[in-house]
Amino acid sequence: MAILPPTSASRDPLARRIGLRSAVLFNMLEMIGVGPFITMPLVIAAAGFRLSVWAWVLGAGLAVADGLVWAELGAALPRAGGSYAYLREIYGPRGAGNWLSFLYVWQVSFTAPLSIASGCIGLSGFLAVFWPGLDSAPFAAWPALHYANFAAAGACVFVTALLYRNLGSIVRLAWVLFAGVMAALAGVIVSGFAHAAQTGGWHMPAAPPLGFIAARNGLAQATLLATYCYWGYYNISFLGSEVRRPEKTIPRAILVSVLLVAAFYVTMNLAVLPSLHDAAAHAAESAALRVQLVADIARSAFGRWAGYTIAALIVWTAFASVFSLLLGYSRVPYAAARDGNFFRFLDKIHPQHGIPHRSLVSLGAMGFVFCFFSLQQVITLLVITRIVLQFSLQQAGVMLLRVQRPELERPFRMPLYPLPPLAAMAGFLFLLVYRQHALWGLAVAAGIGAAGTAIYLVRAWQLREWPFAARSSPG
Length: 475
Fold this sequence. Notes:
Shape: globular
Low-confidence stretches: 1-10
CATH superfamily: Amino acid/polyamine transporter I
Number of helices: 18
Largest sheet: none
CATH architecture: Up-down Bundle
Strand content: under 5%
CATH topology: Amino acid/polyamine transporter I
């Protein structure tokens, strides 16, 4: 299967302005979002106190193993769109790669706005700490529609407007957001250890012993949640056409961001363990109430205003995560449109700001619409869909590319090959199989893939593309 030379990358009008520090920044902004603050009680409830720490460690190990796959592909194929470009080139732009890359954009077209909307809805739920009235319904005829939905939609519009500017301004704004994210993490860690010191010192809460099967299944569910919180270490890969010295910057940014965030997450989990002794009882509560658990730790340690400060910093962190998420994913439809594999309307660069503005606004608009849906627990569906339709294809693809193109220039070659992709595939398989309602999640992912495949086949038949392309005669 022939792989085309990176001619499209050389003609990409996006300027390379992102260095290593900014690359790590964008990754960490997406990784440290609403996830760790609202899932800590869920992780503890699923795995128990002693295994909850191992869930964060296993999640970090999976992130490193899969991150090495992203690092090798990102260094060899530094294109806008990340996974879209990788799948297209690995499996053949005139063959199955055309289908798989379309399928990837298809699932991103709703999983990315859904992720954006869930972050905005989570942000509005955190605001309920200050304005409890956000949980009420303004229209009696639509009791599922709350004021919080309007606050979420407003946040989505605001993030889109902030990103509608040149990349230099975006980087400067990202550093301001990052300062608040670090303050939120530090505040939760310090509050957790201070509260433990006031209540007799740090200790592991007592918990009933678990049988092997219950412990294994609980660890799988907890690791799935932790894995969701780590996702974002690959964000810089979507901005590949805008990275300086991508052959060095992308691998370093991925590994540095995973190691730093893993250190923060494990430390934060240890800090709050004594205070979340009743985490299982709070597991089914709303996001706003789970955030109040974290704020209550700071309030108990340092007073009422400390609790409000932590809640405000978590709102800031949620906003920063949505900011980075929309920035990265806005490059995916643009890259597909440039290749003629998606709507041509999105193949436009702003003449003044130099950004794919139509793709940015389109994803922001779709996220705005999703903000008015009742989004409960979408983490499991997002994780399973991306494992099946994205990550597993890349992990197999990086090994396939080594076989097909051994002469391809690889500025970064993952150590211990092929252990990292095999370890990532085994870890993700563990998450998919050993959890409650595993078949339901896989069925939903299969349905998404089948629907995208059907749309692709109709389109390919009309355009006479693979597998309906006419074969050229010999010679």
